[in-house]
Write a structure and sequence with these properties.
D-Maltodextrin-Binding Protein, domain 2, Chorismate_mutase_GmP, lyase, phenylalanine biosynthesis, amino-acid biosynthesis, 4 domains, Chorismate Mutase Domain, subunit A, about 25% strand, Alpha-Beta Plaits
Length: about 375
Amino acid sequence: MNLDELRCQIDQIDQNLLQLFEQRMEIVKGVAAYKKENNLPIFHKDREDQIIQRISSQAAPENAEGAKVLFSTLMNISKCLQQKEVLDYTLDTLKLLEEIQAGHQQPEHPTVGCQGVVGAYSYLACQKKFPNATITMFDQFEDVFQAVQNKKVDFGILPLENSNAGSVDEVYELMKHHNFYINHTITLKIDHCLAVRPGIKATDIQKVYSHNQALRQCSQFLALHHLPQESYTNTAAAAEFVAKSDLPIAAICSQESAKTHGLQILQQNIQNNDENYTRFMVISKKLYPRPECDTIATSLTISNAVGSLYNLLTKFAVNGVNLTKIESKPIGNKNFDVVFYLDFSGNILEEQSIHLLNELSSELTGFKFLGNYKAD
């Protein structure tokens, strides 16, 4: 038998599989109608486990694992279809729908909270996004979260990740403990400079202060010049500290911070990579749905069972949704569990997005809708 004949047989089998798949989906609709009528849950883990075990035992040994993947995918597709048919909203989804229906409008002259001091990169990001805002500076990232939570400010601006140094772990850790909505993101080009008090020469510098992210972003420059370093709360706060100190020390900060605090710039653009960008998120207590939003942010946890992540990703594929970000952070327990941060294409004003969020909320522990924004 030649290759063309073998391919012809595969085509015929695929056609039969397609017909059987469509028959199965029609029956699934009937199952969904029955569950809806009798108020039964969509997800039935024990039955799914029984089916997978049966399929695995009946398949040839060399095909057992592949058969498990195939039928797990079939059941995931079936659950997606049942969710659409039943439309049994979770409490999280109902809360989200209430926020959407509230129709909150963004203030024209908002109050915004940033961490650090005037001239910090968060401050510059705020000026870029909200030129008419009243800006309040806070000492710590957590202060910004709490100010938003307690309605002291309309918005908070916090750094999420840098294109070279990676995620801002402290912010991600705080995200687990606060309730908020992401309504915007801002991408800012980061150009670091080495700044000292007037009269201090490069050879005089005993130590360089800055935020640990900035120190990582300028690690090559620091190593080349053998400059000791010490982490500080914020780049602009480091500039302020250097300006008030009598010691021969330096700060890595923005040019704006250096000028604000009367520092002399010894060298500009000292970051490792000139393509150096930081992405900030704009958080608020209220949700501000807008038709132009194209990215949904969520966080969730999944079990350590084999195939759990694959099953999760299948949901997005079945719904034709593009995942734009997936990141994991440790929860900090003895099982080494992680929380996943997923961004995907969608708008909460669209029914399809609500259905997907509802499905995730109903099946996953620790699921949290984090916001909907227009990708920068």
